[in-house]
Amino acid sequence: MIKNNLIQKVYYSISNFVASPEFIKNILEPARIANQKQDITGCLIYHNNVFLQLLEGDKNKVENLFNIISKDSRHREVTLIFEENINERIFPSWSMAFHEFDDNNEEVEKFIKSVQFFSENNEKPSEAVEMFWNMAKHIVN
Ligand SMILES: Cc1cc2nc3c(=O)[nH]c(=O)nc-3n(C[C@H](O)[C@H](O)[C@H](O)COP(=O)(O)O)c2cc1C
User: Is the per-residue pLDDT at 99 higher than 80?
Assistant: First the structure.
């Protein structure tokens, strides 16, 4: 049984800018400070103009942040692909881990495609989420 109020949300979006290190830094630095204050943790992945972000923390705080992020003009088509109550965080010590994949990464292409497929078909994105976890582990280690 889940006794706390922790949730996880995963969404993807399309960047409105080509991601320079500065563009990413302008998103990440304040996000990490704000997340720390709110005890929100997670992971942001960038590849080929697509952001994929996992947010975890108190339900109300994550909902609020997701609403704010959805309206951010630096990206568009913010699409929620997964949402779940959780017992434990995957990123307990990351106010926002970040990873950028280079262009020739087949694993990422496959992942992005399955994310799009599942969100279009409105099903629980189990395969996509499993791949996210695998990538996430890879980033943290
Ligand atoms: C891809 C992306 C990811 C973001 N992730 C976070 C985040 O994890 N935490 C956060 O506080 N802001 C994040 N932001 C920034 C928010 O959209 C917003 O600009 C920030 O919370 C400041 O909001 P405010 O001006 O209403 O205070 C992200 C923005 C983008 C484009």
Answer: no
**What is the atom index within ligand 1 of the atom nearest the CA of 75?**
31
Say which residues have a Cβ less than 8 Å from residue 8's Cβ, sequence separation at least 6.
Answer: 54, 55, 56, 62, 82, 83, 84, 86, 89, 90
Q: Are strands 41-47 and 50-58 parallel, antiparallel or unpaired?
A: antiparallel
- In terms of average pLDDT, the best of 63-67, 116-120, 130-134 is 63-67
| pLDDT tens track for 33-84 | 999 999 999 889 888 788 889 999 999 999 999 999 999 999 999 988 888 8
Domain 6-140 coded CATH 3.30.70.100: yes
The string of DSSP codes covering 49-96 is TEEEEEEEEEHHHHHHHHHHHHT-TTEEEEEEEEEEE-SS-S-TT-S-
Ligand 1 centroid–CA 1 distance in Å is 32
